[in-house]
Amino acid sequence: MARDEIHDHDPGLEQLLAIMRRLRDPQTGCPWDIEQTYATIAPYTIEEAYEVADAIERGSIDELKGELGDLLLQVVFHSQMAEEEGHFSFGDVAAGVADKMIHRHPHVFGEESRDKSADQQTRDWEAVKARERAAKGASGVLDDVAVGLPALLRAVKLQKRAARVGFDWPQTTQVLAKLTEEAGELVEAKDQLGPDEIEEEMGDLLFVMANLARHLGVDPEAALRRTNAKFTRRFRSIEAALAAKGKRPEDSDLAEMDALWDAAKVAEKS
C-alpha cells in the first residue's frame, strides 16, 4: 500500500484499518508488527484494558480518549491477523457484536416491553447468554468463564454462575463465618505446613473474600484498586514528610513511618 493511500483516508476507523494493513505488510511493513501473533499481542490487550479502567478511576477524560484508542488498536491488530489467515475481518467482528446486542435487547430492538426493572433485564440478559452458551455446546455451568481473567474477577464470575443454580450461601453472615474459618486455617498452615499448603489456604481465603464482596455488592477488583491508590498516596506522604527532614524511608523506622501514616490519614479526612 502506497503512503498516499494512508493519508488519503479521512482520520478515523478506515484510516486506522489501512495503517494496520500497512504495518503488517510482509514486504513494506514494520518488522516488529509483522512477527506478532495473537499470543504475543494478548498481554498488550489486557494491559490496555486496565489502562482504560485506570483513566476512568482517576476521572481523566482526556486520557480516557487516548486509552480507548489504544484498546481499539488491539482489536484492529487481532482482526488484521485473523483476516490474513482467512478467518474473519474487523467488519465481521463489528457485525457480530452488533447482532449480539440486537439479539440480547429484544425490549429495545424487538417486540418485548421496555417496562421492566433493571433486575428483570439482568435476569433476561443472563437467560439469553445461557441459551447462547448452550448453542455453542457449553453444557457445564462454569463453561466459558475465561481462564485469563484476573483471579479475583474470575472468582466472582464463577461464584455468580454457581449461584444461578442455587449453589450459594443465602446469608452474608454465613460468608463471614466461612471467612473466619479460612483465616484460621491459614494461620494453622503457616505454623504447621509447607509453602504449597500455605498457598492453597491463602487462595481459599481470597476466594471467600471475593464471595463476600459479591454478597455486599462490591467489585473486589475496583475495591483493591482503590486501596492500592490510597496506599500509594499515603506512602508518598510519608516519603515527603521524611524528605522535609532530610531523611529517606530506609533511614527511618516503623514507629516513625507509622506515625506519619496516621498523620496522612488525618490530613486526608480534614
UniProtKB/TrEMBL annotation:
<dbReference type="GO" id="GO:0046076">
    <property type="term" value="P:dTTP catabolic process"/>
</dbReference>
<feature type="domain" description="NTP pyrophosphohydrolase MazG-like">
    <location>
        <begin position="36"/>
        <end position="109"/>
    </location>
</feature>
<feature type="domain" description="NTP pyrophosphohydrolase MazG-like">
    <location>
        <begin position="174"/>
        <end position="234"/>
    </location>
</feature>
<keyword id="KW-0378">Hydrolase</keyword>
<dbReference type="GO" id="GO:0006203">
    <property type="term" value="P:dGTP catabolic process"/>
</dbReference>
<dbReference type="GO" id="GO:0047693">
    <property type="term" value="F:ATP diphosphatase activity"/>
</dbReference>
<dbReference type="GO" id="GO:0046047">
    <property type="term" value="P:TTP catabolic process"/>
</dbReference>
<dbReference type="GO" id="GO:0046081">
    <property type="term" value="P:dUTP catabolic process"/>
</dbReference>
<dbReference type="InterPro" id="IPR011551">
    <property type="entry name" value="NTP_PyrPHydrolase_MazG"/>
</dbReference>
<protein>
    <recommendedName>
        <fullName>Nucleoside triphosphate pyrophosphohydrolase</fullName>
        <ecNumber>3.6.1.8</ecNumber>
    </recommendedName>
</protein>
<comment type="similarity">
    <text>Belongs to the nucleoside triphosphate pyrophosphohydrolase family.</text>
</comment>
<dbReference type="GO" id="GO:0046061">
    <property type="term" value="P:dATP catabolic process"/>
</dbReference>
<dbReference type="InterPro" id="IPR048011">
    <property type="entry name" value="NTP-PPase_MazG-like_C"/>
</dbReference>
<dbReference type="GO" id="GO:0006950">
    <property type="term" value="P:response to stress"/>
</dbReference>
<dbReference type="Pfam" id="PF03819">
    <property type="entry name" value="MazG"/>
</dbReference>
<dbReference type="InterPro" id="IPR004518">
    <property type="entry name" value="MazG-like_dom"/>
</dbReference>
<dbReference type="InterPro" id="IPR048015">
    <property type="entry name" value="NTP-PPase_MazG-like_N"/>
</dbReference>
<dbReference type="GO" id="GO:0046052">
    <property type="term" value="P:UTP catabolic process"/>
</dbReference>
